[in-house]
Amino acid sequence: MISGAPASGKGTQCELIVKKYGLVHISTGDLLRAEVSSGTEIGTKAKEFMNAGKLVPDEIVTAMVTARLSRQDAKEKGWLLDGYPRSFAQAQSLEELNVRPDIYIVLDVPDEILIDRCVGRRLDPVTGKIYHVKNFPPESDEIKARLVTRSDDTEEKVKSRLEVYKQNAAAISSTYTSITNKLDGNRPKEVVFNDIDSLLSQVQKDKTAKSVKPVLQTVSHLDKASSNQDKWRGIPTRLNNIPHSREIRNYFYDDVLQATQRAVNEGRTRLKVEINIPELNPEMDVYRIGTLMELVRVIALSFADDGKRVKVCVQGSMGEGALAGMPLQLAGTRKILEFMDWGDYGAKGTFIKIGSIGGKEVDEQDDMFILVAPQNAVGNCIIDDLKAMTDAAGNRPVILINPRLKDLPGSSGIMQTMGRDKRLEYAASFESCYFFRLLYYAGTQYPIMGAIRMTYPNDYELYKRVDEEPRKEKYVPLSTFTQRPTIDEINDAFLGKPKNKEKKPSGIWGFLSGVF
Fold it and tell me: Which residues are catalytic?
């Protein structure tokens, strides 16, 4: 990581570092200018601050830098951060993500030298090359005639930027005290680089000497992660108490998120989440649309925090005239998403966008798509729009949250009856990354009999609910299955029969015939 005031020579030193060490150069200035030139929403916001000679707000820069650090080249080759972090908040955001440099280099140059360097700078609009009227004049009169002064290189703006830089640099220093190396930047570039080269060479030697141990630690970490059970505390109790407590909701949000992240990180691209706790089961009168929206928000924000551009999609009204309508479960969903709180750093509109289901909604900059409870509407089938979207998405992840791709009533109460085989075939192409279903003795009535849970990449786990005194309960594991268990397999497990033993269809457990 390298830091320095405007015109301190960071750019020159970064070029020399990248040339010798092959690091990925990540410059916040380049990232910002790319957004501005592309005319994106985030670029337009950044331009307002840049034109005023002010630093761009943390939330904008953090979102861009996080996205760049998450790319594969930066992970493999290592990275050189230039111009970031520039505030205590930005430094802390990296610390929270466990992103910490091996060394923090600060180029120190007197203010009067910095002002002279900035005010005297000239830009060649044809080649993009930077000159200086005294220190580095152009090679010819032709070039000299076309040189321009950048809008942020006036003395007033330079002084303003210097003052802001000093304040933020002081705040950052406490975060990187143990790895900070301050160098005199008011020397020839070759001399400055010699000092930097010596520092980086030593860092490289130290990392090489310790390389065996980190490799072993990484393997151990992956082995632990493969179990994927380290954070699970067991199924929460009192799931029929409505409304659900915040603790119960957060449990399921986190459980779904962990499974989804594992699947996406392993390259799975067609995923579905199925969860039917009472507040997320539209067949129960306690169904709560807000709980579904909170779940979607948790997943979207988590991937956005990792630098992914997430598009959250809800199907719109389908059909025409008397057949126009929307499934009751989705009524008002789009407006709820638009007005939800999407965090303090401006994620909505930048790294999270709200859209509809369909091929035309897929933009090149989208990294992944979360589809909220896609289902069939009045006299129409959502499958065509879904397939168009997944075709356009290509290898990018598409995640269905509580899909219901079967005949359902729409807003006007008419059943969808067309294309059943087509719907079932397409629905089967999505891999379950999370499954949770409560089992009841009769329909969806109290009491709860047990539960089935699956989190990617683990097996399906069958649990039995057991009453304890006084007024307590717990979920006891009965069996595991590599595939979603059938009704007979569930019956056998509750009856204590061994797996694969032939079972007659009759018996007191026949009530489960309607569970699936």
Answer: 10, 86, 121, 150, 161
